[in-house]
Amino acid sequence: MNHSLIDQIGNTPLVKSMVLNTNPNVTLYFKMEGDNPGGSVKDRAALNMIKTALDAGTIDHNSKLIEATSGNTGIALAMIAGIYNLDIELVMPESATKERVLTMRAYGAKVTLHPDGIEGARDYADDKVNNEGYFSFNQFANDNNWKAHYKTTGPEIWRDTQGKVTHFVSSMGTTGTIMGTSTFLKEQDKNVQIVGVQPTDGSSIPGIRKWPTAYLPAIFDASKVDRVMEVSEEESIAMARRLAKEEGILSGMSSGGATTAALKLADELESGIIVSIICDRGDRYLSSGLFE
């Protein structure tokens, strides 16, 4: 039996919706990614990106690492970089919650807050890579992001539903989760429907993005998503609160958004087994007003 912290990443539980899903012919499962040691789905990609780069000799203990992140990837990278004794600078939007910043610093990372959102953070990191000799994992263009989910998330869902999953619902940020999981599930059964979740125009939902063309993640392949559903900021907040109060699942706003889409989908179907990603824990949003 493996007892290191690294070995605890993945194999997160599927939890059945007992209250919110009201269609008796549809089963809705929540994939509880907040159960990862770093508290989010991003532990998977962070581990795969760091370990692959170390194994290939692309980085070592003298490397100056930098990454732009809206939050969860940064926490995961900070945790795993600390375990491997690597120095990393994480660049986040100034709007990031205090819990996120303090968590990254607790793990030993340097945190830089940028006034121009995630796009500004990405530009700042790119500049340091191009001009100051830094190395960035560039989660938006790194195949080891989506391959983490091809190797773990997809197989876990297939195994835990006994190959009966009919629909997979995921918020889209870097799109690593949906790309990797889709690739695996479609190889098992091409009829599995992959549903991506985006914010409506004008909605700000941490962890879900509708990217400007110039910033669209290079790993994104639209052919791997069968349907895109849009959710509003208001719906996502209300659903995050309902998840906590009615299902006992404390999660962030992006999980509220994914659940909103999953429930709309459940209402449309005559029958099916839906798996929807709960991408993180809600305790890192307590200072944000999400649950006030």
UniProtKB/TrEMBL annotation:
Record domain Tryptophan synthase beta chain-like PALP: where: 7-280
Highest taxon in the source lineage: Bacteria
InterPro entries found in the cross-reference section: Cys_synth, Cys_Synth/Cystath_Beta-Synth, P-phosphate_BS, TrpB-like_PALP, TrpB-like_PALP_sf
Main EC class of this protein? Answer: transferase
The GO annotation for biological process reads: cysteine biosynthetic process from serine
Pathway the protein takes part in: Amino-acid biosynthesis; L-cysteine biosynthesis; L-cysteine from L-serine: step 2/2
Note the NCBIfam families from the entry: cysKM, PRK11761.1
User: Any idea what this protein is called?
Assistant: cysteine synthase
